[in-house]
Give the backbone structure.
Amino acid sequence: MCLSLRCGANIAEYAGKHLHKYITNRPEYHLGNVEEALKQGFLDLDQAMLEEDLLQEKVAGSTAVVVLIKDNVVYCANVGDSRAIASVKGTVSTFNNRISVSLVVLKA
């Protein structure tokens, strides 16, 4: 997971400590719908940050990119302008489009 500190170190630090939990605790994750778990995990984190007292006064945000490998499938999700690339059999492959909470799935 990569988090940008450009808009607020506190937000990026909070997301870095908690985003993976929001994703892997989603029922969709355990049912094999990783794409939906990633989307909902980002939304759950966003809601939790809005409710977190220590972050209430912060006018800040963060971008993030997550790469998750489960059952030999590589999933990539991003929010904001963070991007990821992969080398697949020696060929560079971009994961992300310019869409908020975009998902790309590569089968290994």
In short: The beta strands are 2-3, 64-70, 73-79, 85-88, 91-94, 102-107. Helices lie at 9-24, 27-30, 34-51. The chain has one domain: 2-107.
